Amino acid sequence: MSAFLPFALPEIGDDEIAEVVDTLRSGWITTGPKARRFEQAFTEFLGDEALQCIAVNSATAGLHLALEALGIGPGDEVITTTHTFTATAEVVRYLGADVRLVDIDPATLNIDPAAVEAAITPRTRAILPVHYAGLAADMPAILDIARRHGLKVVEDAAHALPTTRAGQLVGTLASDATVFSFYANKTMTTGEGGMLVTRDAEVAKRARVMRLHGMSRDAFDRFTATVPSWYYEIVAPGFKYNLTDIAAALGLHQLKKAHAFQQRRAQIAAAYDEAFRGLPLVTPPGPQGGDTHAWHLYVLRLAEGAPIGRDAFVDALFKAGIGCSVHYIPLHLHPYWRERYGLKAEDFPRSQHAYERMLSLPIYTRMTDADVARVIAAVRGALG
Ligand SMILES: *Cc1c(COP(=O)(O)O)cnc(C)c1O
Fold first, then answer.
1. Is pLDDT of 61 > 90?
2. Helices (H), 27-108
3. 188 CB under 6 A from ligand 1?
4. Domain boundaries in the chain?
């Protein structure tokens, strides 16, 4: 019996480790030269010089900063999907604004543009789509709705590095801001971290100031200026959301590997798709022709007529030594969201239906072909 196969593991190489050690020895361990280099490298990765990249200590922080910079506040509503992690929605509440949760497309499990349009009220200010599992949301439709109703769009791209839609990388689309996550189990990691990307100069300026206490100049600027400069001004009650150079050191090397990481995950997804054909399972939809799916998650659903339920399926996989998970318990089922907005499962039939039948299999670059085969055998075994 082999050891337990965890649901997720980061892939940290010798170059990441050497860069972190170099940072530790350098004397500058918080936000400094490596965070700057990481931001520049991210702009280069996205391939558009007009984009500004702002490194932060989580995607949650980045989403909060983006909405704050766009002026979202009390009395406003932001529309997002119920089928996400709570971070997507909680940032709206940080600002005193309200969340309007909507249902998903039953095939892609991404936010349903028709449901978005139906949820618009005079108070709606922004749409917050999530690229679920690493598959791009229907951005042409969402951007069109936003244009017609004068709404802002902030993309939660926590799963979407690298993801393309019609050949364009998520991060370069015509939204107001896009936020990536470098949490430990994401498609690349800095331990904890995130990147706010925007082409709006005003949003970038505000987010840079609010990222660090509302200070007019950051510590690195002040201590490395050629003219000694201890002076700064506080222009707003900001946050403590800066990314450390220790974390950025990891990010510099992870980013170089992001395409290779995606290729390995796509290979694993293809092996799963192939192996599960003919079983009573709904395999996750692939990208549209020629596009890239980041494959942060591989979400299976039990088909009608499957011999077991989801919970028994998850138990059987655990007993076979395979870690798996469920993405997500929809927000409408959590006490806070349910009670605050009086939500009922019947209001979100497609998310609810998917939730009751779904589980996520391990999909990460440190898995060997033998690990993939083990997962496949365990899935077959669990279905009897
Ligand atoms: C992980 C995740 C976040 C939060 O990312 P952090 O970097 O941990 O703050 C936000 N949205 C979604 C959909 C996520 O999966």
1. yes
2. 33-46, 59-69, 86-94
3. no
4. 14-256, 258-382
Q: Distances in Å between the alpha carbon of 336 and those of 159, 208, 268? A: 24, 31, 36
Distance 64 CA to ligand 1 centre (A): 12
C-beta atoms surrounding 276 within 10 Å: 18
Give phi and psi for 49, each to the nearest 5: -65, -20
Joined together, the tokens standing for residue 5 give 């196969």
Predicted model pTM: 0.97
Residue 130 CB–ligand 1 contact under 6 Å:
yes
pLDDT band at 384 (very low <50, low <70, confident <90, very high): confident
The chain-wide mean pLDDT, for the chain, equals 96
Let me know how long the chain is.
Answer: 384
Q: How do beta strands 168-169 and 164-165 pair?
A: antiparallel
- Judging by DSSP bridges, how do beta strands 281-282 and 77-81 pair with one another? unpaired
CA 147/CA 150 separation, integer angstroms:
5
Please tell me the distance from the alpha carbon of residue 169 to that of residue 167, in angstroms, as a whole number: 7
**pLDDT greater than 60 at residue 1:** no
Using alpha carbons, list the distances in angstroms from residue 183 to 8, 57, 243, 248.
12, 9, 12, 12
- CATH number for the domain formed by residue range(s) 258-382: 3.90.1150.10
The token pair at 95 is 């600002």
Q: What is the separation of C-alpha 81 from the centre of its chain, rounded to a whole number of angstroms?
A: 13
What is the atom index within ligand 1 of the atom nearest the CA of 87?
A: 10
For the stretch 165-186, pLDDT in tens is 999 999 999 999 999 999 999 9
| Assigned CATH topology for domain 14-256 | Aspartate Aminotransferase; domain 2 (3.40.640)
Dist CA 129 CA 142 (whole Å): 8
Residue to mutate (ligand 1; options 7, 54, 57, 60; most atoms within 8 A of CB): 60
Q: What is the pLDDT of residue 228?
A: 66
Q: From residue 5, how far is each of 110, 311, 371 by CA, in Å?
A: 28, 19, 8
Helix (H, G, I), strand (E, B) or coil at 269: helix
Q: What is the pLDDT of residues 266-277, one digit of tens each?
A: 999 999 999 999
Which ranges of 257-296 would DSSP assign to H, the alpha helix?
258-276
Q: How far apart, in whole angstroms, are the C-alpha atoms of residue 303 and residue 281?
A: 5
Query: How sure is the predictor about 2, in pLDDT bands with cuts at 50, 70 and 90?
Result: confident
